[in-house]
Write a structure and sequence with these properties.
Strand content of chain B: 5-15%
Low-confidence stretches of chain B: 186-204, 217-232, 249-254
Structural class of chain A: mainly alpha
Number of helices of chain A: 7
Helix content of chain B: 55-70%
Low-confidence stretches of chain A: 78-92
Mean pLDDT of chain A: 81
Helix content of chain A: over 70%
Largest sheet of chain B: 3 strands, antiparallel
Number of helices of chain B: 17
Strand order of the largest sheet of chain B: 1-3-2
Oligomer: heterodimer
Order of helices and strands of chain B: HHHHHHHHHHEHEHHHHEHEEH
Largest interface: A-B, 45 and 30 residues
Radius of gyration of chain B: 55 Å
Structural class of chain B: mainly alpha
Largest sheet of chain A: none
């Protein structure tokens, strides 16, 4: 990987990695630190990383650093979603989105990461398995469970909203 | 893929996760059209999908790396060429003023700072030359060369001289040449030619001397320093014995009675005594058919070195070498202390 390729990776993947991390840990500074560490590691190992696998590499590194961060801090400092950048909220149905976000945040870290990687980044089961060090069937089962949990929570919200 | 009441949920989840092929997706959509009661479930599952948000990393420029390798375009060569001038014009004067203003520095040091140009302000470090060390090293090197040269130039003359068989180098050379010429007999006798070490004789009788003289060239060819019996050549001794008997008739017919009788007559006394001696020597020769010789390795006993006409006591040389070595060690230990 050349210097130019690395800079392209920064342009193309930094936002996605940051979004994935900040949605998980809900702490902007910590998320920035994790993203910076991930890119630093990519820079250090740029000779071994194939450009085509750079995105997957970045998400893998960031995910594992995030897990370490969660274990170390063991405190998911609850940040108000409104504190996030304003452009984050683009969904029209903001109320339903807030419910969904709240429901996602109530998932365990693995399920949350699965949902975020699937919905935000569009990774396949196999790619998610590589990033999170899970088998394809495990990804499938865990993600389906998460979906059903979210569906139930949304269903529970819908009657009260109505 | 078969969609029924037990598999629909899994297939719906795969559908919203986009894990089905286009054909399968159409199949699912057709099944929902056929079974509209499941459309609500599909909508609910679709509601769990999180729409992508445009969250941006705030300090993306900090993550980027600038090219490290300098190129011709981004190097200002004029700055490098005028580095001395830039230094003199800016930092040199500034530093000079700062140093002059420092109260703790000595005047001598401050004067040393007054250089005309920065290029002349080089600090010349004295070459750390230890004279004692050099002397010891030189002596040691000379000794090594001396000993090495001596070992390389060891000649047969040196051995001969050391063995005391010759009093001068010239004589030793002549003796060595003579021995070398006679070595052909030794080779014919099947004895190895390796070393030229003189022998110490065990027997000193007349006949033994004769045998020794005949074998003198053979004996030095033995290289070991052990006492080794050497067999004399009986045939040669016998021939000599016969010749001696022929020259003296009295000795040939000698008996105890005749000897005693002849001794009483003064005219025959001298001849009889001579004949008696010859007979006695013949008996000794007969007894000494085997003569043993002791070979002495003079190289170990005498360490004297000979280089040309120069004679050096090897033991003294060893002592000198030890002294030099101890001096080196003392110097090193003093430095360590």
């Amino acid at each position: 990987m050349t210097d130019q390729t690395y800079n392209d990776c920064v342009d193309n993947f930094a936002d996605g990695v940051y979004r994935f991390i900040v949605k998980n840990i809900r702490h902007q500074e910590d998320a920035q630190d994790i993203v910076q560490s991930a890119f630093e590691k990519l820079w250090m190992n740029r000779a071994q990383v194939v450009p085509e696998k750079a995105k997957s590499y970045l998400f893998t590194v960031a995910y594992h650093q995030m897990i370490d961060h969660i274990r170390k801090s063991n405190k998911m400092s609850v940040v108000d979603e409104t504190a996030l950048p304003q452009q984050a909220i683009t969904q029209e149905d903001t109320e339903l989105k807030q419910v969904l976000l709240r429901a996602v945040n109530e998932l365990n870290p693995t399920q949350k990461s699965l949902v975020l990687l699937k919905d935000y980044e569009g990774y396949s089961y196999q790619e998610i398995g590589e990033i999170m060090n899970l088998s394809e069937s495990q990804v499938k089962v865990y993600l389906h469970r998460a979906r059903l949990i979210l569906k139930n929570k949304l269903s529970a919200y819908a009657p009260t909203a109505s | 893929m078969e969609i029924n009441a037990t598999t629909y949920e899994t297939i719906f989840l795969l559908y919203i996760d986009n894990e089905l092929s286009p054909k399968e997706r159409l199949q699912v959509e057709a099944w929902i059209v056929e079974n509209p009661s499941y459309a609500l479930l599909m909508e609910e599952l679709k509601g769990t999908l999180m729409l992508p948000e445009s969250i941006r990393f705030p300090n993306k420029a900090n993550l980027k790396k600038r090219p490290f390798a300098p190129t011709k375009e981004n190097i200002d060569t004029t700055e490098i060429e005028n580095l001395d001038a830039i230094w003199s014009a800016t930092y040199s004067n500034y530093l000079m003023q700062e140093m002059q203003a420092m109260p703790g520095l000595s005047n001598e040091f401050k004067k040393g700072l007054k250089r005309e140009t920065p290029s002349k302000a080089m600090v010349l470090r004295p070459f750390s030359f230890n004279q004692n060390k050099f002397t010891y090293a030189a002596v040691a090197a000379l000794l090594m060369v001396f000993i090495g040269y001596q070992q390389l130039t060891k000649t047969p003359e040196t051995y001969t001289l050391a063995a005391g068989k010759a009093t001068s180098v010239k004589e030793a050379k002549e003796l060595t040449v003579a021995n070398t010429n006679d070595l052909s007999h030794i080779e014919q006798a099947g004895l190895p030619i390796k070393n030229r070490v003189p022998l110490k004789r065990n027997t000193l009788s007349v006949a033994t001397k004769k045998v020794l003289a005949d074998n003198l060239l053979i004996a030095p060819s033995v290289s070991t320093n052990k006492v080794q019996p050497m067999i004399a050549y009986e045939t040669e001794v016998s021939t000599e014995k016969t010749a001696m008997i022929q020259t003296n008739e009295i000795a040939a017919t000698n008996t105890e009675f005749n000897i005693l009788a002849n001794l009483n007559e003064p005219s025959l006394k001298a001849t009889t005594i001579e004949a008696f001696n010859i007979q006695a020597s013949q008996e000794v020769v007969a007894e000494k058919t085997e003569t043993s010789y002791e070979i002495i390795d003079t190289e170990e006993e005498d360490r004297t070195l000979y280089i040309g006409n120069l004679e050096i006591d090897g033991n003294r040389l060893r002592g000198l070498k030890r002294k030099v070595t101890s001096l080196f060690k003392n110097n090193k230990s003093d430095k360590n202390k």
